[in-house]
Specification:
The protein is an all-alpha fold and 163 residues long. Helix content is 79%, strand content 0%. The protein is elongated and about 55 Å long.
């Protein structure tokens, strides 16, 4: 089974058809998707700004991550589910869209950066947790994260213009 046949089958599902052909489903789902992304990016930027040393906020990075991570993951799940629903409505068109592809690459890069940060940089965080200026590799992880999420948002915005 080819990718194009899988995408066509996804588009033909009743829920994808209802989203595509209905008057209200797509804009409602898109609104929830955008709000979830705003929440993800907003909270991630607070963490990243802390990492790059722009703001200390009187809070160590470990505490900030502990307080923020559940909210980010909940919002990310909502964004992923609503994004999948939007994608399903015109899967073959979106899959060919360069902005959509860039968004997926930027999301993957953000995820990889986060995984590397947690695996490498965060291990020694006890030593720099409350410093205003974290070490270079933590600052780099924060800057890369911000760049990835800007790319996600910008390419997501461009999807509609390149359809």
């Amino acid at each position: 089974m080819s990718l194009s046949s899988v995408l066509a089958a996804l588009e033909a599902t009743p829920f994808a058809t209802a989203i595509r052909e209905g008057s209200y489903l797509f804009p409602w789902i898109e609104s929830v998707h955008v709000l979830a992304i705003v929440l993800v990016v907003g909270v991630v930027f607070v963490m990243d700004l802390r990492l790059i040393g722009v703001t200390a906020g009187g809070q160590g990075i470990n505490r900030l991550l502990k307080d923020s991570t559940p909210l980010v993951w909940a919002a990310f799940v909502v964004a992923a589910v609503t994004g999948f629903l939007l994608f399903s409505s015109s899967a073959t068109t979106y899959a060919a869209n360069p902005a959509f592809r860039l968004k997926l690459v930027a999301l993957a890069a953000a995820g990889l950066n986060m995984a590397l940060f947690h695996r490498v940089s965060l291990k020694g965080a006890e030593a720099w947790d409350n410093l205003v200026k974290p070490p270079a590799q933590a600052r780099l992880a924060g800057a890369i994260s911000m760049a990835c999420w800007v790319a996600v948002v910008a390419s997501g915005r461009w999807i509609g213009f390149l359809a």
